[in-house]
Amino acid sequence: MNPFPLASRLQTRPFLLSTALVTGVMLLTGCQSGISANINTDANTNTNISTAVKSTPANATMSLLTSTTASTPSKLTPAVQTVIGDYATDGYDKRQQGYDWVGVMVRPFGEAEIDIKVRARGDIKNPSCNFDGKATLMGQDQAHGVIFQTVANNSVTFLQFKDGKLTIDSQDKMALHYFCSGGDTLAGDYQKLASQLVLS
């Protein structure tokens, strides 16, 4: 008695053997596409992209990834969408004359969170301020604008966005000096820029 009856049948039928091999290769290729899609995309879209990639031709995969990524901002709260942009101190407008400035880049991090990067002029001397952090939406109203909160140097720090201006303040006024040199501080007012911050 042959312990592998299927194998003996496949040996007598080369067509079935080749079909089985091609099917196996296609399945393996589909699995690899799904895995690479999961590795290269963010956690919010993993499941949807992985499922769609397995049923999508290879040449359409890139457009699928692009369209899914592009649709992510629609999930953001209106408050986050409002504050996204670049902000800078008054000296930024006079940077051609050699004035120092500090800028804040605000990007979405989640539905109700933002990513903050504070950078200072670094083309003339060493940058005076540097900070990277995340802030969470606390609230929004007509009187105060949009308020986000983070912790900087173990101190609760507030970011208030109102009328195109960002104001950074903290419960401990000295805590925000930690991120700057020469007596500078993160605390203060920053105007929203019409274009992206130019770091040099």
Question: Which keywords apply here?
Answer:
globular, 200 residues, eight-stranded antiparallel β-barrel, disordered N terminus, alpha+beta, single chain
Word description of this protein:
With 200 residues, the protein is an alpha+beta fold. It is 30% helix and 30% strand. It has an 8-stranded antiparallel beta barrel. Strand 2 and strand 3 form a beta hairpin. Helix 2 packs antiparallel against helix 3. The longest helix has 27 residues. The protein is globular. The N terminus is likely disordered.
Give a brief outline of the structure:
The protein is built from 5 helices and 8 strands, in the order αααααββββββββ. It has helices at 5-12, 14-40, 46-54, 61-71, 78-83; strands at 85-88, 102-110, 113-120, 130-141, 145-152, 155-162, 165-170, 188-192.
Q: What does the main sheet amount to?
A: 8 strands, antiparallel, barrel
Tally of alpha and pi helices: 5
Order of helices and strands: HHHHHEEEEEEEE
Q: Write down the overall mean pLDDT.
A: 73
Rg calculated over all Cα atoms: 27 Å
Share of residues in strands? 25-35%
Per-chain topology:
Layout: H1 5-12, H2 14-40, H3 46-54, H4 61-71, H5 78-83, E1 85-88, E2 102-110, E3 113-120, E4 130-141, E5 145-152, E6 155-162, E7 165-170, E8 188-192
Antiparallel strand pairs: 1-2, 1-8, 2-3, 3-4, 4-5, 5-6, 6-7, 7-8
Helix pairs in contact: 2-3
